Amino acid sequence: MSSKNIHEWEKMQSSIEPINQMIGGFKFSDIVLLTGRSGGGKSTLLRQEVLYAIENDYDVFMYSSKFSDHQLLRQILFQAAGAWNIEEKSSDTGGSYVISSEYAKEQITEQYGNKIILFENREEKEPDLLSVFKRAYNIFGCRIFAIDDITRFYLEEVKASEKDPILQQEKLISQFKNFARQFNALIYFVSPPRKNTGEGIIDNANKALGGKQVALADTIISVDKYPEKEGNAEGLIKIHKDRFIDEVSNIDIGFEPKSGRLYSIEQPDFKDYRFSWER
Question: N- to C-terminal Cα distance for the chain?
Answer without folding.
Answer: 45
